[in-house]
Structures are given as C-alpha cells and as structure tokens.
C-alpha cells in the first residue's frame, strides 16, 4: 500500500515539474520568433568627405606592415651576425664594427612598429625604400596625400618627405648675401637642427610624438619602449651600459599605449611622471634615438636597400602585368 502511494506521489511530482519547465515563461522555447541579431558595432568616426579615404586603406596599411616586418627581420639577423665592436681608447670609441653597429641600430628603430601606441606604425610606414623613402600606398598618394598614423583615420598634415639626401642638409641658417634661409628639414624647415647640429636627427624626433602620426603622448614613451625592445642590448652597447636604466612609474605602459591628444591627458605633454634624474636620462635617450636613425639614413646600407628594393618592386610589378 505504501509502495503504491509512493509511486503515485513520485509520478505526480514529475508531472508538476515537467509542466513548470514547459510553461515557465523564462524557460519556454520561443515559437515563431527569430533569434535577436548581435548588437551592431559602433560606427568608426570618419572626419573626411566621401571619396577621400581609399577603399583599400586598411589592406594597404597591412601590406606595408608585412613588408616592414620582413626588413626588421633582416635587421635583427644582421645584428645577431655582427661581430661586437671593441670599446677602446681615451676617449673610448667603438673600434672595428662600431659604425656598422650604430647603423644597424638605426635600421632596427626605423622599422620598429612597436614604437607607436597601437604597435601598428613605424617610421618606415611613411618612408619605404622602393618609393625613394616616401609614402608607399598609391591610393593614399592619389586621395588623402597625407599618410594615416597609428589611428588610421587621423592622418598627418603633409605627404611624407623623402629622406634620401636629407642627412646632408645643413643646420637652418640665413644667407646674408642671398637674403634667404637655407638648411633645416621637413617641408617648412622646422627641424632646424640647432640642438643636435643635425636637421635630419631633429626631424626624427617629430613623428613619434605627433598626434597625427605615431602619436606617443610623451617623449619618455620612446625610452620606455626601447627599454623593452629585443635590440635593447645593442642600444646599450652603442650608447652606454645603463643608458636605459630608467625608473618608470607603474602606469607607464598604459600611458604609452594611449595615443597623444586623448582627452585623458588634457594639455599635459609629459604624462609619464619621472623624477628629474630619470627625465634627464629619458631626454638623452630621445636624442640618441634621433641620432641613430640619422646615422642609418646616411649609411651605404640605406642607399643600397633603396636601389635593391626599388628593383625588386618594379620587377614584381612587371611580372604581374
């Protein structure tokens, strides 16, 4: 008798539970209703009139970045194969392979896309060998003219200037006989070269912190990223042991991953809060950054890679036609 009651109660409970599962509004299967589509992605802000941004902008930027990776890989291979220079003499100099060491360092910097906040912009993004070190994207040259920076919809102010002969420009000066200024670098000669005595090196200090180009919010971000670079040992070999031993505050990586001009910074151009002695070291590193790139730009290797890449580029173009 008890066993029969127990079975009856069990069946009754199962039926009640089944009805709850089937008819509970939160658990009942939707009948005749299509699943909700995923939320639409926010529209990318585009400040340009129609027809300015080329349709192939993103794919072409990616193409150039792949080419940059190839050249950066070659530079890393050259560095690893280099016989280290010998530090000797008074004052000390890097004997034997010292010149090649600093030129390779400049090459590594020139093709390092990790320098930008988005890790998607190198100096070479606007200065590729096969177009005489100017802008390498045909559709951009025909539309935007100025090149996209680390934020692809925030372009620079002018087309990229070729730097084939720029290392040989003199410091900006006034010629009294002609009544004209000559020298300097950039289209408007604003890279005077007064401090470093090299307009070419002065020019290399512009794009890394230009909000429309590489977009770093602080020059100290360059020192921070060099301290994390694979080629840090080469930098310290060329510019001195301990030259990158800077005590960066905890949020430096977060700050340097944020493009300059962001509202979070306001008008602060030194958001990486360093002690005076560390700021002095970071400033020196920024000068060394510029000098290294300038030394590479005036090297034989730079001129050879110019001709070599130009030949290969057009050989590929003709083979495709």
Helical coverage, percent range: 40-55%
- Please state how the strands of the largest beta sheet are arranged side by side: 1-2
* CATH topology-level fold name: Cytochrome Bc1 Complex, Chain D, domain 2
Q: What is the H level of CATH, i.e. the homologous superfamily?
A: Cytochrome c-like domain
Tally the helices.
10
User: What is the count of β-strands?
Assistant: 4
CATH top-level class:
Mainly Alpha
Order of helices and strands: HHEEHHEEHHHHHH
Compute the average pLDDT: 84
Main β-sheet, in a few words?
2 strands, antiparallel
From the coordinates shown, what is the CATH architecture? Orthogonal Bundle
The global form is globular
How many domains? The number is: 1
Low-pLDDT runs of 5+ residues are 16-29
Taken as a percent bin, the fraction of beta residues is under 5%
SS class = mainly alpha
The Cα radius of gyration reads 29 Å
Distance between the termini: 94 Å
Describe how the helices and strands are arranged.
Layout: H1 2-23, H2 57-81, E1 86-88, E2 93-95, H3 98-110, H4 138-142, E3 173-175, E4 180-182, H5 199-204, H6 220-228, H7 232-239, H8 252-256, H9 276-297, H10 300-320
Antiparallel strand pairs: 1-2, 3-4
Helix pairs in contact: 2-3, 3-9, 6-9
């Amino acid at each position: 008798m008890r066993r029969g009651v127990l079975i009856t109660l069990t069946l009754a409970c199962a039926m009640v539970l089944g009805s709850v599962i089937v008819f509970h509004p939160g658990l009942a299967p939707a009948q005749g209703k299509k699943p909700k589509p995923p939320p639409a992605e926010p529209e990318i802000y585009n400040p340009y009139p129609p027809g300015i941004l080329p349709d192939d902008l993103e794919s072409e930027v990616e193409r150039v970045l792949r080419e940059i990776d190839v050249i950066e890989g070659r530079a890393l291979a050259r560095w690893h194969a280099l016989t280290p220079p010998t530090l000797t003499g008074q004052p000390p100099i890097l004997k034997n392979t010292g010149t090649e060491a600093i030129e390779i360092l400049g090459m590594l910097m020139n093709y390092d896309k990790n320098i930008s906040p988005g890790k998607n912009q190198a100096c070479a993004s606007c200065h590729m060998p096969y177009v005489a070190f100017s802008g390498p994207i045909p559709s951009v040259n025909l539309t935007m003219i100025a090149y996209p920076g680390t934020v692809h919809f925030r372009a620079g102010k002018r087309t990229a200037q070729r730097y084939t002969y720029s290392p040989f420009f003199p410091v900006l000066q006034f010629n009294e006989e002609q009544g004209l200024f000559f020298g300097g670098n950039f289209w408007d000669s604003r890279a005077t070269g007064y401090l470093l005595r090299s307009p070419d090196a002065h020019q290399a200090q512009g794009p890394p912190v230009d909000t429309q180009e590489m977009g770093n919010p602080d020059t100290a971000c360059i020192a921070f990223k060099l301290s994390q670079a694979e080629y840090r040992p080469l930098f310290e070999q060329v510019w001195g042991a301990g030259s990158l031993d800077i005590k960066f505050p905890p949020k430096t990586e977060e700050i340097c991953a944020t493009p300059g001009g962001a509202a979070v910074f306001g008008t602060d151009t030194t958001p990486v809060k360093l002690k005076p002695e560390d700021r002095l070291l970071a400033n020196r590193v920024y000068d060394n950054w510029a000098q290294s790139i300038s030394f590479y730009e005036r090297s034989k290797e730079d001129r050879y890679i110019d001709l070599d890449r130009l030949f290969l580029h057009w050989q590929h173009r003709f083979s495709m036609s």
